[in-house]
Amino acid sequence: MLKNWAPEERPEKEEIKERLKAASQKLYELQMKIKEHKLPVLVLFEGWGASGKGSSIGKVIKNIDPRFFKVATMSAPTEEELRRPFLYRYFKQIPEAGKFTFLDSGWMEQTCKDCLDGLKGEAYAKRIDSIKRFERQLTDNGYLVLKFFMEIDKEEQTRRMNALLDSKDTDWRVAEFDRWQNEHYKKCRKIFDKYLTDTNTSTAPWYIIDATDKKWAELQILETMVSNIEVAMQNSGHSTPLLQNVFPLVKMPKLSEIELEGKEISDEDYKAELKQLQKKLGELHNRLYRKRIPVIITYEGWDAAGKGGNIKRITEALDPRGFEVHPIASPEPHEKSRHYLWRFWTRLPKDGHIAIFDRTWYGRVMVERLEGFCSENDWKRAYNEMNEFEKELSDWGAVIIKFWVQIDKDTQLARFTDRQNNPEKQWKITDEDWRNREKWDAYEGAINEMLTKTSTVYAPWYILESVDKKYARIKALKIVIEQLEKALK
Question: 196 with 2: CB under 8 angstroms?
């Protein structure tokens, strides 16, 4: 892109002044419409050191109510961030509906730095795929993603850096990498050009800004933002094309085909096996921490199927400093106003740690689907998005274990009745549980589709037959141990 890019002819100063005034006023007016349309806008500024990324952000935000935007400077990742997936710290920054987030550098700068440190071949290709999926998922879910690259030539960069270095008050703004970049301008330009070309898509294109003149750069940015926001608001509510699944799947049985009879264990055998398996799991947890392998265990299942007791038998075996259980309820307002996967990205474990989810992102294709909390296009698109999410985690090195806890309708009724009649258990039963029970058949159809479309080879579903809760607990422990041993080999 940089190779073939030619700057647009710069207008006269008076024209720039007039157009700037008009664009600034237009952006000021659009901010309220953005709020009304609930349009989230993510604006990424990348470019050369000393090209004016920070000052450009400063000029743009003067036209926006400070309650409606956030600015984040994405400096080098911290030690904590390096222990999570590459996209973790960027996903955390996405704006709420109706607001802006401005990023001073981001996933491009970090990827290009990694390329200079040796990221290439298959690892580079995976990174690019991951970034393109990230940007596409945002735009598919109604985000406007604007990506600006601030372009200056080597002579201009040298002049600006020297001016900054001449004063003690500004020399701190020239980082060591900026100097290195200036000395190796051609090498960096080649890497930038490849990255821009590889990540330039129709839904999240790159806008190369001629940043030689600061007023002209400001005008290019403002006019691009205004035109894109207007188009995005016109397109809001339009259905997004569904993508075919490209990930290999594991064949799953229908829930009606799962044999529940005979899946039992005696109390004596249960106690003996539980003790032995928990001891083994505790030993594996220590090895996981030492080898920095992250583990994600998810639970979905019928109400009263025994998820809580199952989770308890796993956590009893673990070092409490190395795991966290996330009970997932209805999203909070600040979660509902972001991409539905945001609240799961922000709960991912560090490497060497275990995250256990009691209910998961699969609510999108079950409760949200059946209760009308999202559109048909949203939940149909989600199968592929969740497969992509789990592929991202698998490529990071995570062990992903997904359990569906299965019981029959009669067993659920017996457990609901027991909870209703037992004062110590009444907190476990709600009116919503009874309402959901009335929709058993509809839920069963949705679950069958979910299992069929999201049981991938890197994140398959495991069925836990739980008419006998003890049997399900032992089976879960065995599966967890087997998958951890496989990862530790």
Answer: yes
Q: Are residues 153 and 117 in the same domain?
A: yes
pLDDT at 436: 87
Neighbours of 239 (CB within 10 A): 11
* Structural domain count, the chain: 2
What would the pLDDT profile of 153-181 be if each residue is shown by its tens digit? 999 999 999 999 999 899 998 989 999 99
Q: What are phi and psi of 124, to 5 degrees?
A: -65, -45
Q: State the Cα–Cα distance between residues 48 and 26, nearest whole angstrom.
A: 29
> Where a domain ends, among 181, 202, 235?
235
Task: Using alpha carbons, list the distances in angstroms from residue 208 to 112, 146, 148, 162, 200.
Answer: 17, 11, 6, 24, 11
Q: Do residues 17 and 47 both lie within one domain?
A: yes
What is the pTM assigned to this prediction?
0.93
Q: What is the mean pLDDT of residues 116-121?
A: 96
Same domain (yes/no): 318, 203: no
Q: How many CA atoms are closer than 13 Å to the CA of 442, on its beta-carbon side? A: 13
- Domain range for residue 182? 13-235
Calculate the dihedral angle through the C-alpha atoms of 442, 443, 449, 450, rounding to the nearest 10 degrees: 160
User: Where among 201, 235, 269 does a domain terminate?
Assistant: 235
Contact (Cβ atoms closer than 8 angstroms) between residue 203 and residue 134? no
Averaged pLDDT score across all residues of the chain: 96
| pLDDT exceeds cutoff 90 at 77 | yes
Give the CATH number, domain containing residue 459. Answer: 3.40.50.300
Quick count: other Cβ atoms within 10 Å of Cβ 424?
7
Statement to judge: residues 333 and 187 lie in one domain: no
Do residues 22 and 151 share a domain?
yes
